[in-house]
């Protein structure tokens, strides 16, 4: 079996360089700021608590500001994700504020990739007129807005869109966790659980890598679990950088995780190791599911997964014995967030396996988190826009997708069909990262209006009619953020330095002013400070106090282990059998589903994942981070030596990667750390915007090879359903 063969040698080979990067504490910050900090005279240092924008974790940070310039950052000690530390991206990304390649003024497109600067007034006037003309001709349902939701965006963006009468608000989850979220939501009533890692005795990770896709506190909790003697099983076609902390690596065939979880569930019931009491009290439909599970034996799963039946049996039995301090971590994107036709069903099977262990709300188990009650704007003084009269586009096609997130790429499909006429992108590089870039480019070109709000000239901005320059997170205040977790809390992003470019504006101002130009200004008759005061009202925390502290946790409201909340599923219980799935035309109990495509002996499956020093496309142009990629050749694709040998490919060779969609050239890292069937493409290279000089041309554009597609259950992008061939070429 592959697992034992590669695991022993792979463990030894786990790269010291990348592991060191994963835990980097500081990046040389002083060197780049020193030229800005005026020497001599009085040095004034202020410390401002805020939140990082290096990735969606939004860890708490403290900005140390010297004479008005950002000097260094440290982790906020009270923030649950930071716990006093931030990662290398957190340090490096902050250099963006002083980058020479930022957007500095509003732009209007005047030709292919050609822009001219315009005033804010002109931008608002023209965008307002165009939006209103589209609404008049095609109705508000022809308008959409997509973003990576951050604290202010979450409030301002949907409000703006609803004021225009459109429900079409989308998030980036379509290429992140739409599948997992749909699977979990219809099973447990939440799109994700949290995991009480540090108290757990047996932890299985399925395609989730704390050591690469970093959140500082997650890494710390895993170290604690390891020190407490927990068993840590890593299921990944790749020996990722968390494997340094693992007790076992299972090099599964990509796309086959569902088979493994079904077989483990089969063993749990066969061995009578499931928590019958929990199942009786808190679930429905267990009988139907256990009947379905009879056929999913470990021997059946061995053929699909490449993991031996003995290993599957042993792990399921050991987890059953360790329950409730045993869990399959809820995962995020890697294995079943958005990748395969079977990903929603994998999400469901994982949630149900945890339920069978009875680990929900238990110490060392899965946690349904709690969040603080925040106030809303006073409805008399600040009336909310009416709920739009239409359903969000995509809801009919994908009724299982979590409604608040939607299926963002439906915008592109409808644009191709001539039904979507306007798209606003805020804090989103959808044209490069959400779907096949060629398809996205054509779709965007078919719309009457595309507006992008960004801090740099992203690929999406390049395809837009108007580009509006946001200030960076170092230069702005944002709305109050409610933190959900075992303990609920509050965090606040705050301005650290004066804005560097006078013509940039934060989105609360952009939406407020644009709303006026659209004739919907009455819905934005409040200030950000006023909003924050009202959001904080029910919490008993004053705005002044939150501004001073940056993070406030409500320890007295922490979840008490063992107390089961009422679930937000239709039955209010864990659903082993789902009427919702049945109504949507799917099997009400989880069944085995094949991935859409499979590699032959000659071809490979393309898979992707994070590197500790980059966040999607947004960090690629940060010189201090990209230099690490260059120094360690991190942009190379990974290939197994057995396959490389057959193809006459050696480490460092240049190869051509060919799929149904594209042909690319890139260098190879030949390593035993990858399953022979897979090619791993690190995220996120292949930047094509010529405005991003540091990043352009380095590495490989993964999404270029991904056919534009939707997973049938959740609408997710199916981004690992890609087959490629590889051959050696001259460099
Ligand atoms: N450094 C960094 N950290 C980040 C981010 C970032 O951009 N950069 N972004 C944040 C965001 S938005 C997200 S969603 C999370 C994502 O967090 P993760 O999901 O943990 O991150 P990924 O690296 O995308 O995927 C994790 C692992 O899944 C493996 N994998 C690929 N295919 C399969 C498969 O078929 N089966 C199994 N079992 N494993 C597979 C990959 O080899 C990879 O090691 O990271 C967050 N943290
Ligand atoms: N190959 C590959 N592709 C992936 C993934 C992968 O692992 N591999 N991961 C997927 C995942 S998990 C996710 S979540 C998505 C993420 O996809 P996106 O959410 O689109 O993330 P980015 O590609 O980083 O693009 C973010 C954009 O926001 C801009 N931005 C940054 N800061 C600000 C700001 O303060 N204000 C404004 N207005 N804009 C700002 C950036 O410049 C950038 O253009 O990518 C997915 N795509
Ligand atoms: S994990 Fe790193 S990049 Fe992400 S928010 Fe935290 S410190 Fe910033
Ligand atoms: Mo993500």
From TrEMBL:
Q: Which GO terms describe its molecular function?
A: 4 iron, 4 sulfur cluster binding; metal ion binding; molybdopterin cofactor binding; oxidoreductase activity
Annotated region (Disordered) at 371-392
Keyword 4Fe-4S belongs to the record = yes
Q: Which domain of life is it from?
A: Bacteria
Sorted alphabetically, which CDD domains does this protein's record hold?
Answer: MopB_CT_Thiosulfate-R-like
Residue ranges constituting the 4Fe-4S Mo/W bis-MGD-type domain according to the UniProt record: 45-101
Keywords (alphabetical) are:
4Fe-4S, Iron, Iron-sulfur, Metal-binding, Molybdenum, Oxidoreductase, Signal
Question: InterPro entries of this UniProt entry?
Answer: Asp_de-COase-like_dom_sf (IPR009010), MoPterin_dinucl-bd_dom (IPR006657), Mopterin_OxRdtase (IPR006656), Mopterin_OxRdtase_4Fe-4S_dom (IPR006963), Prok_Mopterin_Oxidored (IPR050612), TAT_signal (IPR006311), TAT_signal_bac_arc (IPR019546)
Task: List required co-factors.
Answer: Mo-bis(molybdopterin guanine dinucleotide)
| Gene3D superfamilies linked to this entry | 2.40.40.20, 3.40.50.740, ADC-like domains, Dimethylsulfoxide Reductase, domain 2, Formate dehydrogenase/DMSO reductase
Instruction: Give the compositionally biased regions (Basic and acidic residues).
Output: 373-392
State the similarity comment. Answer: Belongs to the prokaryotic molybdopterin-containing oxidoreductase family.
Concerning NCBIfam families, the annotation shows: TAT_signal_seq (TIGR01409)
Which PANTHER family does the UniProt entry name for this protein? TETRATHIONATE REDUCTASE SUBUNIT A, TRIMETHYLAMINE-N-OXIDE REDUCTASE
The protein here is known as: Twin-arginine translocation signal domain-containing protein
């Amino acid at each position: 079996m592959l697992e034992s063969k590669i695991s022993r040698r792979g463990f030894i080979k786990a790269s010291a360089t990348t592991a060191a990067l994963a835990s980097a504490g500081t990046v040389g910050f002083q060197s780049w700021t020193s030229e800005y900090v005026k020497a001599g005279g009085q040095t004034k240092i202020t410390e401002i608590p805020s939140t990082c924008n290096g990735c969606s974790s939004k860890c708490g940070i403290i900005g140390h500001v010297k004479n008005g310039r950002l000097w260094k950052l440290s982790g906020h000690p009270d923030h649950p994700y930071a716990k006093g530390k931030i990662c290398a991206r957190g340090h490096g990304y902050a250099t963006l504020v002083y980058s020479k390649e930022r957007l500095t003024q509003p732009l209007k497109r005047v030709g292919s990739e050609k822009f001219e600067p315009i005033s804010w007034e002109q931008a608002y006037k023209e965008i307002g007129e165009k939006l209103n003309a589209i609404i008049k001709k095609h109705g508000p349902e022809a308008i959409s807005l997509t973003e990576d939701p951050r604290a202010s965006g979450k409030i301002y963006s949907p409000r703006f869109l609803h004021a225009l009468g459109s429900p079409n608000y989308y998030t980036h989850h379509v290429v992140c966790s739409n599948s997992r979220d749909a699977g979990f939501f219809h099973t447990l009533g939440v799109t994700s659980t949290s995991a009480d890692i540090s108290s757990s005795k047996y932890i299985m990770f399925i395609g989730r890598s704390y050591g690469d896709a970093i959140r500082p506190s997650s890494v710390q909790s895993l170290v604690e679990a390891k020190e407490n003697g927990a068993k840590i099983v890593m299921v990944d076609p790749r020996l990722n950088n968390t494997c340094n902390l693992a007790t076992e690596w299972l090099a599964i065939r990509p796309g086959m995780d569902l088979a493994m979880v079904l077989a483990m569930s089969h063993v749990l019931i066969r061995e009578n190791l499931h928590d019958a009491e929990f199942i009786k009290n808190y679930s429905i439909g267990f009988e139907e599911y256990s009947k379905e599970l009879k056929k999913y034996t470990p021997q059946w799963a061995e053929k699909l997964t490449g993991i031996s039946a003995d290993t599957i049996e042993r792990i399921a039995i050991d987890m059953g014995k360790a329950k409730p301090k045993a869990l399959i971590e809820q995962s995020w994107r890697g294995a079943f967030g958005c990748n395969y036709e079977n990903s929603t069903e994998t999400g469901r099977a994982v949630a149900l396996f945890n339920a069978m262990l009875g680990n929900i709300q238990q110490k060392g188990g899965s946690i349904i988190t709690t969040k603080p009650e925040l106030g809303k704007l006073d409805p008399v003084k600040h009336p909310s826009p009416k709920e739009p009269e239409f359903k969000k586009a995509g809801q009919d096609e994908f009724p299982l997708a979590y409604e608040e997130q939607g299926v963002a790429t439906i915008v592109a499909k409808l644009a191709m069909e001539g039904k979507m006429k306007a798209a606003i992108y805020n804090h989103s590089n959808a044209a490069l990262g959400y779907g096949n870039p060629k398809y996205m480019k054509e779709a965007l070109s078919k719309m009457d209006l595309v507006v992008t709000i960004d801090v740099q000239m992203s690929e999406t901005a390049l395809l837009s009619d108007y580009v509006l320059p946001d200030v960076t997170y170092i230069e702005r205040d944002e709305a109050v953020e409610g933190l959900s977790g075992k303990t609920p809390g509050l965090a606040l992003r705050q301005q650290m330095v004066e804005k560097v470019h006078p013509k940039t504006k934060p989105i609360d101002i952009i939406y407020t002013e644009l709303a006026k130009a659209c004739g919907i200004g009455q819905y934005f008759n409040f200030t950000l400070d006023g909003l924050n005061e009202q959001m904080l009202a029910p919490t008993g925390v004053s705005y002044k106090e939150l501004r001073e502290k940056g993070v406030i946790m409500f320890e007295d409201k922490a979840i008490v282990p063992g107390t089961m909340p009422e679930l937000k599923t239709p039955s209010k219980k864990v659903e082993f059998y789902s009427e919702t799935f049945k109504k949507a035309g799917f099997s009400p109990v989880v069944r085995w589903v094949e991935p859409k495509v499979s590699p032959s002996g000659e071809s490979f499956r393309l898979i992707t994942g994070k590197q500790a020093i980059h966040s999607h496309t947004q960090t690629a142009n940060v010189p201090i981070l990209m230099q690490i990629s260059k120094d360690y050749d991190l942009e190379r694709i990974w290939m197994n030596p057995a396959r490389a040998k057959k193809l006459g490919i050696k480490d460092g060779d240049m190869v051509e990667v060919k799929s149904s969609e594209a042909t690319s050239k890139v260098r190879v890292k030949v390593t035993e750390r990858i399953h022979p069937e897979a090619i791993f493409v690190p995220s996120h290279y292949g930047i094509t915007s010529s405005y991003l000089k540091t990043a352009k041309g380095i590495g490989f554009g993964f999404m270029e090879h991904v056919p534009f597609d939707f997973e049938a259950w959740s609408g997710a992008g199916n981004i690992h359903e890609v087959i490629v061939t590889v051959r050696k070429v001259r460099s």
